[in-house]
Amino acid sequence: MTPFNSTPVIWIAFSNTAEAKSLAERIDHFADARVLDVEAIDPAALMKDVGQHQTGWLLVDEVCFNDEGLQGLARNAGLKHEFFRCMVIGTQSGQKWPDETIYLESDTLSTTIIDRLRNESHVLRIASSRMRHVRRLQNR
Predict the structure, then answer these.
(1) What CA–CA distance (Å, rounded) separates 73 from 81?
(2) CA triple 72-73-79, angle to 5 deg
(3) How far apart are CA 119 and CA 21, in angstroms?
(4) What's the predicted TM-score (pTM) here?
(5) Long-range contacts made by residues 81-85, C-beta under 8 angstroms, separation at least 24?
(6) Relative to the CA of 64, which of 83, 85, 90, 104 has its CA 20 to 30 Å away?
(7) R_g over Cα of the chain
(8) In this structure, are residues 20 and 45 in contact, taking their beta carbons and an 8 Å threshold?
(9) Could you give the percent of the chain with pLDDT greater than 70?
(10) Are the C-beta atoms of 65 and 88 separated by less than 8 Å?
(11) Residues near 46 by beta carbon (within 8 Å), at least 6 away in sequence
(12) 104 vs 62: CA distance, rounded Å
């Protein structure tokens, strides 16, 4: 039995809560989707939750993009968890976000966002499984 959940956890930090909840419902069939209240972030709980999943995501819109608390949380999670990624919708660059961050245009369709998350999560899950297998072999 693995000590963590292989279903990816996706935290959604959008300025529009209704939009975030709608996206979370649509993502819920392939991931553990959760809406993040940007005003009341509990970094310790989020880090613990990310650590219990094989892969994790932080999905941010262009309004929450400049939130320094989210940026710090993303950098910290990226440093502590090898398979944690961020996806920012509405901007093309961000020096304060982790290097592996994926940037999508603001007019990107929600179906495109969901498909990209599904595909990227699948790739991360494969990479994580391979890495764990290699490490298990090296420890023999």
Answers:
(1) 12
(2) 90
(3) 21
(4) 0.86
(5) 81/50, 81/51, 81/56, 82/128, 82/131, 83/54, 83/55, 83/56, 83/124, 83/127, 83/128, 84/50, 84/55, 84/56, 84/57, 84/58, 85/55, 85/56, 85/57, 85/58, 85/120, 85/124
(6) 83
(7) 15
(8) no
(9) 96
(10) yes
(11) 11, 36, 73, 77
(12) 10
The CA distance from 119 to 96, in Å, is: 25
Give strand pairing partners of 59: 12, 87
Interatomic CA distance for residues 49 and 24, integer angstroms: 17
pLDDT per residue as tens digits for the range 100-139? 899 999 888 999 999 999 999 899 888 888 888 898 888 8
Q: What distance in Å separates the CA atoms of residue 77 and residue 41, rounded to the nearest whole number?
A: 14
Token reading at 108: 């990107």
Q: Are 27 and 114 in contact (CB under 8 A)?
A: yes
pLDDT in tens, 22-40: 999 999 989 889 998 888 8
